């Protein structure tokens, strides 16, 4: 690369730097692209944990071993010193002729069915593979603080929405009156996932439409592998399906869509896939993940969350998720709301303060 021009810079939860490259003869002969996107974290004021290192490790793994619906990547590296820093050089999808997904996109039942086939391809690519034994690349799903501590670490973000009357209108009273119950649910879900013996597969970890891209040919590929894990696939299937369907669409089609996904997974050659009834019992529990995760979403990150929250809490009622995970149990740990939480950036703290009555603590 002799030189480059900056085409765009976006800094939100991570940083995306788009570049036009001036290639020398060696670069041209090697078939390098003239546009790329560098992804890392040069944002200020947002704690990201190890997600940039984790994504770099994922793309390094993907380049060596993975035939799956992903963006092309050309380079990935990380510091490995505990700081969580990593960088990926990947194709610039802005120039690819398709469109980025958004959580609010309406796909309809047929569109969701097609996207579930894409997820099945992703899960099937490393189904039961020994490649997943190297946990330096992919940690076990729900066995890392980025998963298990979400309610605690992001409580101030959750509180921002819990204190919003628009969110309270779609939430059950317990969610905003005793939000520590969300941590109870997450702890039980984490323990439940650890009990599952496998086979395990590659798990995206954050499989909503906003982390995907639809190519000019209509094929959906998956982006933002910052929460990539090895685990059972129902985390992704539940998170995508409930978020992408209206409540009525889900109620009328969930079992048929679930069976369609399972058939697509088996067709990849995956062996030892749980039968439909056993898999459905796992699926019902995973609704808890979306219930707490989407409640911590901030709209300025680019995905409007309130309708997705409505969908997950309606599904939680329909699937009896809370009772499945917590009935007859005591919390594994007592959470004090706000204790150990990451502080809000100044603009969001200002917004939260503006909602409180004068003199309130």
Mean pLDDT: 90
Portion of residues within helices: 40-55%
Q: Strand order of the main beta sheet, please?
A: 1-2-3-5-4
| Sheet with most strands | 5 strands, antiparallel
- What radius of gyration results from the CA coordinates? 21 Å
Order of helices and strands: EEHEHEEEHHHHHHHEEEEHHHHHHH
Structural class: alpha+beta
Describe the protein:
With 361 residues, the chain is α+β, with helices and mostly antiparallel strands. 43% of the residues lie in helices and 14% in strands. The protein has 16 helices and 10 strands. The strands form 3 sheets. It has a 5-stranded antiparallel β-sheet, with helices on one face. The protein has a 3-stranded antiparallel β-sheet with strand order 6-8-9, covered by helices on one side. Helix 10 packs across helix 12 (276-285). The longest helix is centred in the last third of the chain and has 21 residues, at 247-267. The protein is globular, with a radius of gyration of 21 Å. The model has no long low-confidence stretch (mean pLDDT 90).
């Amino acid at each position: 690369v002799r030189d480059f021009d900056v085409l765009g810079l976006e800094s939100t939860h991570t940083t995306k730097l788009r570049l036009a490259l001036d290639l020398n003869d060696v670069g041209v002969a090697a078939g390098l692209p003239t546009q790329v996107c560098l992804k890392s974290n040069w944002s200020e004021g947002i704690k990201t944990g190890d997600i940039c290192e984790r994504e770099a490790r994922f793309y390094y793994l993907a380049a060596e071993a993975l035939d799956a619906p992903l963006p092309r990547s050309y380079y990935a590296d990380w510091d490995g010193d505990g700081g969580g820093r990593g960088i990926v050089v990947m194709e610039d999808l802005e120039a690819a002729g398709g469109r980025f997904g958004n959580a609010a996109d309406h796909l309809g039942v047929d569109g969701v069915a097609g996207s579930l086939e894409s997820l099945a391809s992703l899960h099937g690519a490393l189904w039961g593979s020994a490649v997943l034994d190297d946990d330096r690349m992919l940690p076990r799903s729900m066995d890392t603080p980025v998963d298990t501590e979400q309610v605690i670490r992001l409580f101030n973000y959750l509180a921002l929405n819990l204190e919003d009357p628009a969110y309270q209108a779609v939430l059950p009273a317990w969610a905003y009156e005793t939000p520590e119950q969300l941590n109870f649910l997450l702890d039980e879900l984490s323990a439940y996932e650890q009990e599952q013996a496998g086979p395990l597969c590659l798990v995206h970890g954050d499989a909503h439409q906003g982390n995907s891209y639809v190519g000019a040919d209509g094929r959906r590929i998956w982006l933002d592998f910052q929460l990539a894990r090895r685990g059972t696939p129902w985390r992704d299937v539940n998170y995508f399906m409930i978020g992408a369907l209206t409540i009525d669409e889900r109620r009328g089609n969930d079992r048929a869509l679930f069976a369609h996904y399972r058939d697509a997974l088996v067709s990849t050659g995956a062996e030892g896939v749980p039968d439909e009834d056993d898999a459905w019992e796992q699926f019902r529990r995973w609704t808890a993940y979306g219930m707490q995760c989407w409640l911590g979403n901030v709209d300025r990150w680019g995905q409007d969350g309130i309708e997705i929250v409505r969908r997950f809490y309606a599904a939680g009622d329909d699937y009896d998720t809370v009772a499945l995970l917590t009935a007859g149990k005591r919390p594994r740990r007592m959470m004090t709301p706000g204790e150990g939480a990451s502080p809000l950036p100044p603009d969001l703290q200002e917004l939260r303060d503006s909602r409180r009555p004068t003199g309130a603590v």
